[in-house]
Design the sequence.
């Protein structure tokens, strides 16, 4: 029975650090919201609606951070088979969906004002939408596909990133109207506000990723214990 | 005594090594071997299919029905609406193709054939390529029916040149579709509720193929096709096929390892 995994509680320093990061994230989010509403100037053409920008852009950046992380850990899991890479890939996949959904919710609200319509078949919009659809499908598969679902989900994560690239190119050939990168040309106060928001989002991302990894590790351990228990003939 | 024991040990080790080396050589990994093995698998599928014609008839008939339903749905006055034929062609292909993809691996599930195939000394790449070839064959049958019925219901007139180009578009497009579809079908072959999962994954993944296919086909259906635009979409399709083909061969092995 020495082989049984222990369901040890996470150690204190790690708890402390996680709490610190989460606390700082909450604080920074409050600060950034304050900056967004009371510090950053009104944008001339868009007015109040432009403030969505400070939420939309950081969320999009987090998605762009999360997706490569998911890609790399999925590839590593496919070829190395270490449970850690599966957990990291899964956590990054979930966070990509969460931040991608934020992007897709805030984007149309802004687009309605800027373009007069909620949705256009623009390069970034379409690529993001298809990526998120694929990731949701991958998550569904990971939950329901049976015995080798983890491997399948890792393979799908890889395919969905490849696919998003192709959607990008194909829609680019077709049409385009998303605002170009304008961060460099921003007014200084707007820039500061944006960077505070981005910093806050990074902290939130790290905290969420950490918690998610911990949850999946505990889930894996619990499953292992269940398996051992049923092997040992213990029912319920 | 001692040297003899060492010798024996060495001999045993040598034999062991030889055996291991032979085992290592067992999956036939040479390019020619992979191609011939893939050909055998495809030929086996084809022979099974031609005896029953179950898959070909059901999917091709389904493709015809999809075109029929769409042409009922999009009528104005007595004539079908112009300009939507290309879209309907590709939607019909995508739908009936996914119906077929579900079944291609069903056949292997019966009697644990897939397990036997995986245990046989052919490489994974050969299994994938063989299945890809049989999916492509099925797609060709569907396309023959769907293209003819779209031309019929939408009274299209295509020049021979345009028809040849349409063939190229369909070939590259269905290759991309089959590359993705075969990989997904294999991945999900052991999954529960795989029919739904396959459709959930397939349509978003083949979206670039559908976009390029529809755009290329609709320019071909115009009276004066824009060949510069057509070239662009053909390039995109070729790129998709190349990238996803390589990726599929790369991840097919680890995906089927369990």
Sequence:
């Amino acid at each position: 029975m020495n082989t049984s995994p222990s369901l040890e509680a996470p150690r204190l320093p790690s708890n402390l650090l996680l709490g610190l990061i989460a606390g700082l994230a909450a604080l920074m989010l409050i600060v950034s919201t304050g900056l967004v509403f009371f510090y950053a100037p009104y944008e001339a053409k868009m007015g109040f609606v432009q403030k969505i920008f400070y939420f939309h852009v950081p969320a999009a950046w987090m998605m762009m951070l999360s997706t490569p992380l998911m890609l790399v850990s999925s590839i590593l899991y496919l070829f190395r088979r270490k449970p850690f890479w599966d957990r990291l890939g899964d956590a990054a996949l979930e966070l990509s969906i969460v931040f991608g959904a934020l992007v897709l919710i805030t984007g149309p609200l802004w687009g309605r004002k800027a373009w007069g319509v909620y949705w256009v078949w623009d390069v970034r919009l379409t690529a993001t939408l298809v990526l998120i659809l694929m990731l949701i499908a991958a998550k569904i598969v990971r939950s329901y596909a049976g015995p080798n679902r983890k491997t399948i989900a890792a393979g799908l994560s890889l395919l969905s990133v490849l696919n998003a690239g192709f959607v990008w190119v194909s829609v680019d050939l077709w049409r385009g109207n998303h605002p170009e990168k304008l961060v460099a040309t921003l007014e200084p106060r707007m820039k500061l506000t944006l960077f505070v928001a981005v910093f806050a989002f990074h902290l939130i991302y790290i905290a969420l990723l950490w918690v998610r990894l911990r949850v999946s590790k505990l889930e894996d351990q619990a499953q292992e214990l269940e398996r051992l228990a049923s092997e040992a003939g213990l029912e319920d | 005594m001692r040297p003899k024991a060492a010798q024996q040990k060495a001999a045993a080790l040598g034999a062991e090594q030889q055996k291991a080396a032979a085992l290592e050589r067992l999956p036939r990994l040479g390019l020619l071997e992979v191609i011939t093995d893939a050909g055998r698998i495809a030929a086996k599928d084809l022979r099974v299919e031609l005896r029953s014609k179950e898959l070909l008839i059901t999917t091709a008939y389904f493709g015809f029905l999809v075109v029929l339903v769409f042409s009922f749905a999009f009528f104005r006055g007595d004539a079908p609406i112009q300009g939507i034929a290309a879209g309907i062609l590709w939607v019909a292909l995508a739908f009936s193709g996914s119906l077929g993809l579900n079944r291609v691996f069903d056949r292997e599930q019966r009697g644990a054939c897939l397990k036997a195939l995986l245990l046989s000394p052919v490489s994974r790449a050969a299994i994938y390529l063989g299945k890809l070839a049989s999916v492509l064959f099925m797609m060709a049958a569907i396309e023959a029916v769907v293209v003819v019925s779209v031309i019929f219901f939408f009274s299209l007139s295509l020049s021979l040149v345009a028809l040849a180009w349409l063939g190229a578009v369909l070939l590259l497009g269905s290759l991309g579709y089959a590359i993705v579809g075969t990989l997904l079908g294999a991945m999900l072959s052991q999954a529960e509720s795989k029919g739904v999962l396959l459709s959930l994954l397939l349509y978003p993944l083949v979206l670039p193929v559908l976009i390029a296919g529809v755009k290329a086909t609709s320019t071909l259906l115009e009276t004066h096709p824009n060949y510069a635009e057509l070239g662009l979409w053909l390039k995109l399709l070729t790129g998709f096929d190349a990238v996803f083909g390589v990726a599929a061969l790369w991840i097919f092995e680890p995906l089927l390892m369990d």
The CA atoms of residues 3 and 20 of chain A lie 34 Å apart. The longest helix of chain A spans residues 188-231.
